[in-house]
Amino acid sequence: MVIELLKIVCVKTIGDSFVKDGYLNKQYCSDIVNSLSNQLILENNTLYVLDHLVNTIRRIIYLTNSNTGRNIDFRIKNRRTAGLIKNNPFEKITKSIETIAVYIYDKNINSFETIYVDLDIDDYLYIIFSLFPKPLYNLFSKNIGLIKFTIVGFTGFLVNLITLYVSTNLYSKLASYEFATMLGSITSFETSLLWNFLLHEYWTFRDRGLKHDKVNLVIRWIKYHIGSIISLFSQVSIVTTLSGYLHYPLYLSLIIGVLTGYISNYVFSSKITWRR
């Protein structure tokens, strides 16, 4: 069955330069439906989609269901004409290779509906991952928590570095440079730790439904401190053992130490600090 002008769900996404005030206009939606007429099939109130659109549509349907309370029956059919398939069927309309939008249900040909779905950072990560080859997409999408943890860790490193330079310069005006460096290191460590903790609390592990009252926040803050100290200890131990005693190159022992500390910190945070 070829899709006619059905009721449409239009979703704002990364490549939304064609969206005015957060909504797609009727003509754009009509154009998109027409462009997809040979790629989407509606049978018995079920939306069928060719497999090259699977990841995109699965994500959009999830967003639509969770934001509007709707329920779409979604099934997959194998691609039919490989030569006609593009990675992004919306590119010609939107002029943006990053645009991912729309979906369709309801056979009422006279009705038209636009639903605005506000995307958060997690949604954008999934959309970006959907542009990767399928094996990478599967790897990243199934380990989104680890990727978010890595992003937070990188920003924490930048906070640590900036705070170290600023605080050391300030302390050096009041004490010797050696003492100022020590105080600066402590200050930068605690500042980056607080930064990371807040991002993990309200972003990385926010989907775990934990209570954010003062008591639970303090408990998790203490646990996170313990996990970070364990991570630091494992890193120092590995570097000392490999380079100090076994005479491996310093850069190699540091890489192994950082990776080990990172993994131990993630496991501790995921399984203990922010345990469900």
Automatic annotation (TrEMBL):
Keywords (alphabetical) are: Membrane, Transmembrane, Transmembrane helix
InterPro entries in UniProt: GtrA_CellWall_Glycosyl (IPR051401), GtrA_DPMS_TM (IPR007267)
How does the record say this protein sits in the membrane?
Multi-pass membrane protein
- Family of the protein in this entry: Belongs to the GtrA family.
Can you list the GO cellular component terms from the UniProt entry?
plasma membrane
What domain of life does the UniProt record list for this protein's source? Answer: Archaea
Protein name (record) = GtrA family protein
Protein location = Membrane
Segments passing through the bilayer:
146-167, 179-200, 221-242, 248-268
- Asked whether the UniProt record includes Transmembrane among its keywords, one would answer yes
Q: Which organism is it from?
A: Staphylothermus marinus
The UniProt record lists the GtrA/DPMS transmembrane domain at 148-274
Q: Which GO terms describe its biological process?
A: polysaccharide biosynthetic process
